[in-house]
Amino acid sequence: MRIRAVEEKDLPELARIDAEAFPSAPYPYFVLRQYFDICGDHLFVVEDDEPRLYGYVLASPPHHTLSWIISLGVTPELRRNGLGRRLMVAMLHRLQSEGAQQILLTVEPDNGSAILLYRSLGFVAYGTPDPDYFGRGEPRLLMTLSLRTAPPARGTPPSAPSASPNAGRRGGP
Question: DSSP string covering 135-156, please?
Fold first, then answer.
């Protein structure tokens, strides 16, 4: 399995991954297309030798040292194999190299495995879950990560946890 930047030809596969990872609320194809056009340099996929795609991570480019993880999705059959972690670490390194100092994301408060992943990478909860973050009955927990200025070793998260009052979609593997 290797991680690489998404290419335009990957969009149908990206839509498939998103639908498998988030069956109750996948992004419409046109939204994925727009994310590709706007944030393509911040959209990574993981593929096998076939090549078939199995996961992706999407982030906003840093703006005044702040960036968001917009979405992290891994196909159900390959969850809990470290792909989400590998995608996140690759993206965190990318964002840090571009000057990001704080990363934010949102996650469903009942998605325990995603919260554990994010905590293991150094993210901390900021406040309590907002019960209507994405509209009525759509709760999300905001999590934040403060990045150090010194580059971390490859393969390890570039994190030093710290909550900050400066403030994605689903955010979960």
Answer: STT--BEEEEEEBPSSPPPTTS
- Rounded Cα–Cα distance for residues 172 and 88 (Å): 10
What's the rounded Cα separation, in Å, for the pair 76 and 66? 30
Residue 40 neighbours by CB under 8 Å, 6+ apart? 5, 6
Number of other CB atoms surrounding residue 135 within 10 Å: 6
In angstroms, rounded to a whole number, what is the distance separating the alpha carbons of residues 94 and 157?
Answer: 11
Instruction: Give the pTM.
Output: 0.82
In tens, the pLDDT along 60-116 reads 999 999 999 999 999 877 677 888 999 999 999 999 999 999 999 999 999 889 999
From 49, 51, 71, select the one nearest 60 (Cα to Cα): 71
Give the residues across from 145 on adjacent strands. 103
Reported as a single tens digit per residue, the pLDDT across 5-56 is: 999 999 999 999 999 998 988 999 999 999 999 988 999 999 887 878 899 9
Please name every residue paired with 69 in a beta bridge, in sequence order, or none if there are none.
59
Task: Name the maximum alpha-carbon separation found in the chain.
Answer: 44
